[in-house]
Amino acid sequence: MAEESLHPSPLLPNFARADLSFERGEGPWLFTDRGERYLDFGAGIAVNALGHAHPHLVKALADQAQKVWHVSNLYRIPEGEKLAQRLVDATFADTAFFCNSGAEANEAAIKMARKYHAVNGQPERFRIITVEGAFHGRTLATLAAGGQQKYLEGFGPKAEGFDQVPYGDHEALKAAITPETAAIMVEPIQGEGGVRSVPPQCLRGLRQLCDEHGMLLIFDEIQTGVGRSGKFFAHERAGVTPDIMTVAKGIGGGFPLGVCLATREAGKGMTAGTHGTTFGGNPLAMAVGNAVLDVVLEEGFLQRVERISLVLKQRLAELKDRHPSVIEDIRGEGLLLGVRTRVPNVEFAAAARDEHLLLVPAGDNVVRLLPPLTITEAEVAEAFDRLDRACARIEAAKKTGAAA
Ligand SMILES: *Cc1c(COP(=O)(O)O)cnc(C)c1O
């Protein structure tokens, strides 16, 4: 394409990037190198949970940077022991493994589930049931777990050991269980798949099935966790807990950080030498993770997320009423909200970007709104105005198109 040849890039062309670059951020705002201001309702794909340049996070990172950055996991890392203890205290888990990304946390979860059955004397139990529309990452195993053909294409044989069932089909799920099944792995709300919530009774049903069949239940809360859904973790609303849970994105507030949490029982096979990571859980990452929890676990923080979520949902419902030819449906929980559009979702996201509002497309023709959890009512009102103008722009273009 002409534009590409004008701006040859040394980067691998595996991302379709918008021609925008930001040099500074503050709360929910991003500033381009041309001095333009964008309202960031994408938050680096649910990563910048506390917005940009949050003073507490900046200080935690800078303070730690003066002390020690990295020591490897050959030694104890007190900041990591502290963060693990806080996660254990606030969840079902007894133990935590730190790594650098979501996919890496899921790899740990998959290995842990297989190892659990192996040390129980059932090494033949290595298969994991996943759900259609899932997204678990881009490594070879997590791609196989996600099962999306478009991502698997051309990368050789799909990794063995994953059985996918249609979304919401409890009977198909039951039928997929065999003596080789080790675990069921689901996102309580599918993020990339189009902001599709698994109903609480289904999460409870999965727990029951796992208990009946001696399988482990794995929740992928990489996108839904750390307050994004309005709860600390999205599965809390169902009143059941998993055996293993993966967390990334928001937990680092922008610093690469992933965690695989587990009960002592589920993690019992992962003894010294069975798994590892060079960078995972280093002091810099641990300092930032602790700082994120300082804010998210503060009294009243999650209640505030729930309140602002209601405000945003009401505004989106109003937007749907005002622009029924553009917006079909509003979905999601907390500040993981989706708008299903009647025009191609990427067109909708582009129209919003023209109004200097950043959104993130997802599957099922949905556009995600993932603002920082610290968003205010005034900023929600600002986003509404921009969305309203974007919808009007799309309607106007439709009319012109129809007339032409
Ligand atoms: C983003 C995401 C992943 C992958 O995380 P990476 O850090 O990109 O490897 C896995 N599962 C879910 C649910 C995600 O949203």
TrEMBL record:
> Needs which cofactor?
pyridoxal 5'-phosphate
Its localization reads: Cytoplasm
Broad class of the protein's primary localization: cytoplasm
Q: What Gene Ontology cellular-component terms does the record carry?
A: cytoplasm
Q: What class of enzyme is it?
A: transferase
Per UniProt, which keywords does this protein have?
A: Amino-acid biosynthesis, Aminotransferase, Arginine biosynthesis, Cytoplasm, Pyridoxal phosphate, Transferase
Keyword check for Zinc, yes or no: no
Which parts of the sequence carry N6-(pyridoxal phosphate)lysine? K249
Task: Drop me one GO molecular function for this one.
Answer: identical protein binding
Question: Which processes are annotated in GO (biological process)?
Answer: L-arginine biosynthetic process
Q: Which PANTHER family is this protein grouped with?
A: AMINOTRANSFERASE CLASS III, SUCCINYLORNITHINE TRANSAMINASE
Something else the entry says is: May also have succinyldiaminopimelate aminotransferase activity, thus carrying out the corresponding step in lysine biosynthesis.
This protein is called Acetylornithine aminotransferase
This chain's source organism reads: Alsobacter metallidurans
